[in-house]
Structure formats: structure tokens, C-alpha cells
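Exercise 7 asks you to align residues with C-alpha cells for two separate proteins.
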Amino acid sequence: MVSKDQAIGGAILLVCTVVAVLYLVALFGYSWLITVIPVLNIASVEAVRYWLIAIPVLVAFVAILFIGAWIGWTMATTPPPKPIEEITTEIEDKQEEPEPETPATEEATTEEKPTKKKK
């Protein structure tokens, strides 16, 4: 049986393949298509080819601008990091401070480890 992710992947593959084939046929075979299907003769071949190229370029251009705007918004709203000098002084201060020693109790030192009993 096919999992849900595999089914979605197969559907995406099928849709992308069909769209790619239709795009290529429309781009390069439109003049042949209008002779076979006269209803498609609503626009000139040059106009159809222009829009078949212009629309994907427009979508890609807007997507790149959206990504750039997203990066700019993220940079504008993110607080700046601490200066390196401040970080190094914090590290040096932590190294200079001695750690408090925990006094050892007699119970902890005299306690023996349990041994395994033989049967």
C-alpha cells in the first residue's frame, strides 16, 4: 500500500509533468494546434508565445522580490547581537571567579558500593 506522502508525491509529479508538456506544446506547437482545433485561433501565435514566456518570468521575478523583502524584514526586526568585546569580558569574568567547593560529608566518603550477592 502507498503511504500518504508517496501519494502526494506521485500527484505532484503527475501534475508537474502534465503542465510541462502542455506548456511546451502551447509554446512550440500553437501554430499546429490552431490548424487542428480552430477554436484556439483567438490570438496570434506571437501573442500567445509572448504571454507564455512573460507570465512565468513575471512570477519568478515577483518571487525573488518577495524573498528579498522577507530577508530585509527579518534583518530589520532582528535585534543586533552583543559586541564581541562584551562576550569576551563575560567569559573572562566567569573564568576568574572561583567555583564554590562543596564540602564532602563523612557519609559520602564512608559509604560503600553495594556488592552483588552470590546465590
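Second protein for Exercise 7:
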Amino acid sequence: MTETAKSGGLAKWTVLGAGFLGWLFAGSQLGLMPFAALTISKDLMGADFTPAGAGAWFAAYSAITMLGAATGGIVFGHFGDRHGRARGLALSMLCYTVFGLAGYFVRTQEQLLLLRFLTGLGVGGTWPNGVSLLAEFWSDVSRPVIAGLMGAGANLGILLLSLVGKWYEVTPETWRPLMLITGSPVVLAVLAVLFLPESPKWLQSRGSAAAAGIPLVDLFRPPLLRTTLLGIALGGIPLLGAWASSKWMLPWADQVAGPENPGYKALALAWWSAGATVGGLTGGYVGQLLGRRLSYASISVGACVMNILIYSFLKPLEPLFLPAVLVQGVISTMFFGWLPLYLPEIFPTRVRATGTGISYNSGRFLTAAGVMAAGGLIQLVNGDYAKVGSVTGLVYALGVAVIFFAPETKGKELGG
């Protein structure tokens, strides 16, 4: 059978399903600790529990996940360029599901911290390999459609997690089975290892890629150095905004609602992730409609304004809080439908998975530092999550400056 035949029909739909579901379940892992960290800390900290101390652990969990994802995105992205996108995607999924399942057995915060780093490795590797595989298999259709699916995938996973949280009440005594639920896609990961087809574009590029050199090295020297640095900045700003600012809405909601309203945090997560699913789906279309540069700048302004509005003028349990969280979810996650549209367009095939992985995940190193800084700030303001969120939300405004230096790629074909 020819490579062209292999890339058609069932193979294309298999790749679409694996890429979308792989990123969806990775989203569940990303949403797990923002949703459950405060509850887990109440159990593992025992009598030593304080809101400020739990806030510091929340920051640590977020930061270590970012560090793992950043490392995994680079390592597995490089692996995907050298050994195949399908292998890279399948092994990334296997990584985050296996170590996610292992969280059931932890007895200390430190043990869980290590497992969240290892889980993050797989999450980080899923995105660049999935995006590259889909872009190359489906290059004959509208790229905003595929970008939107990938943009929505993780947020749909977070939405599913919130629905699980409504169905299964997560308390300090009952949180462990949640680790088994979020790790159950290990079955899908094993099937991907066995049956996922490889990208025809990658297969065709193997000879030229070997002659050209090592993808990771090529990205940090001319002529690709400027593109790589730009990609890191464009990927880093929305990640830093999401984790250093937006994610504090959940422990804030949990804190204000208190033990009298244990389901409110799940409700807040559901509203945000419902909006985020819409935002991820439409981000690629917005990028296509307005152009890559104007759309990114507009999303940056909107996300900044919504964060300031929520943290400065609203409060959990108020009538307008959840609708505002939904709108913030829509706007702030349009980035994640925009990025899988734009990043593959600026890197050639031989370095595409590495380039997109570095762009999307290197920002997580900055994000980890930003989250830890926010964790320090939460200690200084005695557990006032609103003050932290309102200050850190200003990072979105940087997007308006950075996108000025980016090339406009609207209407151009995916490079070879």
C-alpha cells in the first residue's frame, strides 16, 4: 500500500481521534490539581492545614506540572521529529496516564509532587506530536477546523472533569478514586502504541531531516532562531496568564464557598471549562477571520480585561460571578485554538514537532516561575486569591506587544 493510501480514509480518522482524545484526556490531567489541590491538601496536611499553606502547595503543584510539561514538550517533540509523530504521541499518552494512575497510592505531598512532574512530561509531549500529526494528515482541509478541535480538546477534558466532580463529590476522604478516573485512558494509550499510523509527510522528510542536522540544534541558530524565540513568547503568554492568574479562580471559589458548598468549585470549573471549550473551538476561526496578528492582539486585550473585572469587581457566590467566569473561559482559551493554527505554519516539516513543542512548552518554564511567584504573593497577602489574580492577570497585555513582531501567515500553505 502506498503512503498516500495509508494517509487516507480510516488512517486519517484514526489520527484525528487519537490526537483529539489524547489532548482531551491530557486536559483532564491539567485540570485535576487546580480542581482538587485544596481538598487533597486538607487530607495530606492534616492538622497542619492552613489556607495560606494550601495556597503555597497549589502553586507548587501547578509549577511542577508546568516544569514537567515544558520538559516533556521539548523531549517528546524532539523524539517525534526523530522517530515519528505517532510514536511520540502514543508514548506521551502512556506517560501521563501511567503516572496519573500512580497518584492513587501517594501518602505525602512530596510524593504527589513528583508524580505530577512525571505526568506533566506526558502532557507536554502530547500537544506538539498531536498538532504536527493532525496538521500533516489533514493538510488538505481547512486548518482552522483541526486547530479548533485541538484547541477545544483539553478544555473539553476539563469540562468532563468538572462533570465528574459534580457526580462524584470530591472530599478529603474521597479524592483518591479521582486519580483512577483521570488515569483510565491508559487503555487508549496502549492502543495508540500498537495501531496509530505515521505521518506521510514525516516519512517523506526523513532523508532530508537526517542530512539537515538535529532539529533541537537547528532551532536555536539562524535562520530559525528568531522564529523559535517568537514562538516561545507567543506560547508562553497565554500559558502564564492561565496558570499564574486564571486558575486561581478555583481555589478562590472553594475558599469563599466553604465546606457548606462543596460542589461550588466543580460548578465554577464547569462554567469556565464550558466557555473554554467554545474558546478553543473558535480560536482558529478567529485567527483565520481577522488574520493571525490582529486576532492574537484582540484576544490578549480581552483576556486581560476579563481577569481584572472578575478579580477586582466580583466575588464567588455572587450572581454575576459564574457568567463572568464563562466569558473569561471563552476569551482566554481562544489562544489555544489559535496556537495550533499558527505554530505549525512557521516551522518546516523536519523540525515542526520540536518547534511547536518548544514554542508551546518552553513558556511553561516561565509559567512555573510565575506560578511560584504567585504562590509567594499569596503568602504575603494572607491567602487573598483575588489580589493575586488581579495582579498576575496583567501578563495578558504583553501579547499586544509581542504579536507586533510576528509574520502574518493567513492564506499561506503549510510549509514542507
